[in-house]
Amino acid sequence: MAQLTVDIGGRAGIDCRGFCEYCYFKHVKDVKAFGCRYCLPFKKGCDYCTKGVKEEYSGFKDLKTIADEILAALQTKSGDLDRITISGGGDPSCYPQFTDLIELLGAMEAPLHIGYTSGKGWDDKKIADLLIDNGLSEISFTVFATDSALRKRWMHDPTPDISLNILEKLCGEIDVYAAAVVLPGINDGAVLEHTSEWLEERGAKGLILMRFANATEQGLILGNAPIIKGQQVQSVESFRDTVTSLQKKIRMKISGTPLWDPEIGSPFAIRYEPALIKKLPQVQRMASVITGSVAAPFIDAVLFACGATIPTVPVKKEIACLITIDDLKELDLRQLEQTVIIPGRAFVHDAEAQEVLSRDGIDREVIRGPDMLTADAETSMGMTKVQVLSMEMDGFAELIRAINMYGR
Fold first, then answer.
1. Most buried residue, 106, 210, 279, 357, by most Cβ within 10 Å?
2. Which residues contact 230 (CB under 8 A, 6 or more apart)?
3. What percentage of the chain reaches a pLDDT higher than 90?
4. CB-side exposure of 233: number of CA atoms within 13 Å?
5. In whole numbers, what is the pLDDT of the chain averaged over residues?
């Protein structure tokens, strides 16, 4: 069995009928290369940490180019296709040859999955039938609210009622995972409850809530904070309470990012599984593990249960994979061991990280840890608890092996 990803290209804010008011990519500046795990040791900057992080593409690809890429990809795969995923920097619903694209992929007779769409590009209710007839089996659909006036105001959807009609039809036929960035005072409270009830009644599989970010420490690393001046932002704890409270009222699965999945207990569901923690390797050496402020207490708890004696070191940045060199510059070097482990996906260049973390005269070795230690809501929404725990077991085992291999 094989999977195929179809990249249609496209640019955020341009190939999606304009930015939503809350979009992460609004106001993006021409920031310098961050550095990342893909950079060459002697060169800071690569396509991923210069263009990829900003989803900086040249526009939608034409259909012929996509067809050629599909053909080339199929020649490298063996076995029958069991999934085709449509992705890109732009919104698939706004792809100018969308009907032809779906019919082309539908002819391959494999289940289709649209990784993300706002539905803003769909102005004809017949699109739902086109998708279903051509084998769409799963879709991630940004809804914001099922109040069409709110959707029009905050998402700039020119035909919100048609978009919601399409969403309603899909909910009754395929696996629909809705998503909503939560803006306090706009689409939370009673509006959020109504949106959840609407989705549940129509058969959606789940709703992913995304905490609105409006400051650099919340993840806006592209020089684009604030996205909405004066907009209130929930604390991580308050957001988690929102997710928990809503799940108690709704049978459909509710999860949130950065916290949390009430059904599975993730992120870091393993902390509730002492029998599994006992199966992890024991920490035998000392190294400083750097991570984001949200994950730090959870990682700390697991590592201490495995015998660690060195506290996990949080930076101000909330999300570990969005750590940049500026976060490392703010650390108190007196807290750090000679071996420092940074998140695998952190946006820092290894050589620069070592220089910054050794500026007190102590030559520190900087090691990249696992890419992922747990599953956020966008990942766990389609996973079972066993799958999430398996991911966490693998991630922590890899982290502990790195501590024991490189630590002092």
1. 357
2. none
3. 89
4. 19
5. 95
SS3 letters across the chain:
CEEEEEECECCCCCCCCCCCCCCCCCCCCCCCCCCCCCCCCCCCCCHHHHCHHHCCCCCECCHHHHHHHHHHHHCCCCCCEEEEEEECCCCHHHCCCHHHHHHHHHCCCCCEEEEEECCCCCCCCCHHHHHHHCCEEEEEEECCCCCHHHHHHHHCCCCHHHHHHHHHHHHCCCEEEEEEEECCCCCCHHHHHHHHHHHHHHCCCEEEEEECCCCHHHCCCCCCCCCCCCCCCCCHHHHHHHHHHHHHHCCCEEEEECCCECCCCECCHHHHCHHHHCCCCCCCCCCEEEECCCCHHHHHHHHHHCCCCCCCEECCCCCHHHCEHHHHHCCCHHHCCCEEEECCCCECCHHHHHHHHCCCCCCCEEEECCCCCCCCHHHHCCCCHHHHHHHHHHHHHHHHHHHHHHCC
Residue 175 has phi, psi (to 5 degrees) of -80, 110
Longest dimension (CA), the chain: 67
Contacts of 87 (CB under 8 A, 6+ apart): 5, 6, 7, 8, 115, 116
CA–CA distance, 66 with 277 (Å, rounded to integer): 45
Buried b / exposed e across 296-329, counting CB within 10 Å, b at 16+?
A: bebbbebbeebebebebbbbebbbbbbbbbbbbe
Residue 205 above 80 pLDDT?
yes
**Is the confidence at residue 56, as pLDDT, over 90?**
no
Please, which residues have CB within 8 angstroms of residue 211's CB and are 6 or more apart in sequence?
181, 182, 218, 233, 234, 236, 239, 256, 257, 258
261 within 8 A of 213, measured Cβ to Cβ: no
| Nearest residue to 341 via CA among 390, 269, 398 | 398
Q: What domains does the chain contain, in order, with CATH numbers?
A: 2-257 (3.20.20.70), 269-406 (3.40.50)
Two tokens at 154? 């905050």
For the beta sheet containing 288-291, the strands, ordered from the edge strand earlier in sequence to the opposite edge, are 313-314, 288-291, 339-342, 365-368
Confidence of residue 1 (pLDDT cuts 50, 70, 90): low
Per-residue pLDDT, 388: 96
Q: Which amino acid is at 341?
A: I
Residue 303: φ, ψ to 5°: -65, -40
